[in-house]
Design goal:
Number of domains: 1
Number of helices: 8
Structural class: alpha/beta
Low-confidence stretches: none
Order of helices and strands: HEEHHEHEHHEEHH
Mean pLDDT: 95
Distance between the termini: 21 Å
Shape: globular
Helix content: 40-55%
């Protein structure tokens, strides 16, 4: 069992916030444990809560299409969420929930040790920049955090609500593919 698997096992019993009372399962993360690129979403939805994998629903379909268009495969990346448990009715994460889950994500980042971190959406971005501008302004502007390049992009769910963002979303993944190809381990 790898260290990442051990951490996932520990997280599966987490009761640090009230979300543990309503979840079906902890959605820890998935992908290459040595990935150069680490994607971070917001929180599991219904499909993820049932299946245990991040981005399994409609937003996952949008993500998979963008990855494929860029020549990327999920198995080469690591994908996790800010929250490990589904908020009821897919509401926005609460501060105390983010604070409870943050140590899990920080440990994942330490263990995977990616070169590029891709926060998808406002909640993921604010883990790295507390006072970040909205993702609509921060998207595509890289910055450094603890020696890693952080490249914020839209959350895949945003494309479901605003199809005009799809081209930008795919361009971001083409850029990530270009960066990632020079970083593969």
């Amino acid at each position: 069992m790898t260290t990442l698997q051990k951490l996932a096992s520990q997280a599966s019993g987490c009761e640090l916030c009230a979300l543990s009372e309503t979840r079906n399962r902890v959605v820890f993360g998935s992908g290459n444990p040595r990935a150069a690129v680490f994607l971070i979403g917001e929180a599991p939805g219904r499909n993820e809560d049932e299946g245990g994998e991040p981005f399994a629903g409609q937003a996952g379909r949008v993500l998979n299409e963008a990855l494929a268009a860029a020549g990327l495969e999920r198995r080469d990346l690591y994908i996790a969420n800010v929250l490990k448990c589904r908020p009821p009715k897919n509401r926005n994460p609460k501060r105390e929930e983010i604070a409870s889950c943050r140590p899990w994500l920080e440990q994942q980042l330490t263990l995977v040790d990616p070169v590029v971190v891709v926060p998808m959406g406002n909640f993921a971005l604010r883990l790295f920049q507390k006072d970040a501008p909205p993702i609509s302004k921060a998207r595509g502007v890289p910055f450094d955090s603890k020696g890693r390049t952080v490249l914020p992009i839209f959350h895949p769910a945003a494309i479901l609500y605003n199809r005009s963002l799809e081209g930008t979303f795919r361009e971001d993944f083409a850029r990530i593919a270009k960066i990632g190809s020079s970083l593969q381990r």
